[in-house]
Amino acid sequence: MTTEKGLWAGLVLDALAGDPRRGHPVAAFGRAAGALERRLYRDSVARGAVFTAVCVAGAAGAGLLVDATGRRTATRTALTAAATWAVLGGTSLGREGLAMAAALEAGDLEAARRRLPHLCGRDPSALDAKELARATVESVAENTSDAAVAPLFWGAVLGVPGLLAYRAVNTLDAMVGHRSPRYLRFGRVAARLDDAANWAPARLTGLLTVACAPVAGGSPRTAYAILRRDGAAHPSPNAGRCEAAFAGALGVRLGGVNVYGNRVEDRPELGDGRAAEPGDIRRAVRLSRAVTVAAAAVTIGVRAAVRAWSRSRRR
């Protein structure tokens, strides 16, 4: 039960403290990965594969070392809690969402535009209040899976090595997985690996969003209908499941034209509701927190049940 207790303790730590302002372990990993990239970079899929393999294997190896070091039950629980806290980002995600909501509700568009890069990579300079609200709700939806559900899922499946390896994969995707001229080839493996790692967690996020829809004043039936109809319309194989479920649960319409620097994407609309408004951000954050707790209950509960069943079989 040490892993299960550690995962719950890490979730509580994240809820109480969020991410540290300085010295975050994920930032340290990012700096190390950046240094390695400067040494290995070539405009090549093979070089990108080597880079990705070294970084992910290093993170998983660190997790195995933690498991080997923590032989005592209390030590292993504490180390698992620390690793879980380090890779979770749900609390910080919610805080950023609420800060954006406060800026928009105060009518401070400039402050809201300055905050948007904390949540997503699109260009905020020409966005009005409703477009900023849409961007925030979409980011909260997608990152509920990336920052909360997926770490809990992989922690329940593979323990500390799963936690650290998943965060490495997700961080590498953010660093080199985007479709820029520099990373089109070099970042391809990182991007595909991130898609694979998030396949199951994104679909779990969608289903849990349906179940938690009443928390945001929504209907599970409507949320499920939108998830089934629109989940595959998004260009991402995973983000669409989360965004469609949130759109249905919140009764809003997501999707549309997004500008990322010099790149413009015209994404399909998700949902049948009205355009997202600043007030919907607080509902989205509330829904995200409910989904996170539900994901912990499901993933950790299933892990505990499987362990109990395995022990009973051995007897």
From TrEMBL:
Subcellular location: Cell membrane
Pfam family, one: CobD_Cbib
Membrane topology summary: Multi-pass membrane protein
Record pathway: Cofactor biosynthesis; adenosylcobalamin biosynthesis
Entry keyword set: Cell membrane, Cobalamin biosynthesis, Membrane, Transmembrane, Transmembrane helix
InterPro entries: Cobalamin_biosynth_CobD/CbiB (IPR004485)
Main location: membrane
Family: Belongs to the CobD/CbiB family.
HAMAP family: CobD_CbiB (MF_00024)
Function: Converts cobyric acid to cobinamide by the addition of aminopropanol on the F carboxylic group.
Name by which UniProt lists this protein: Cobalamin biosynthesis protein CobD
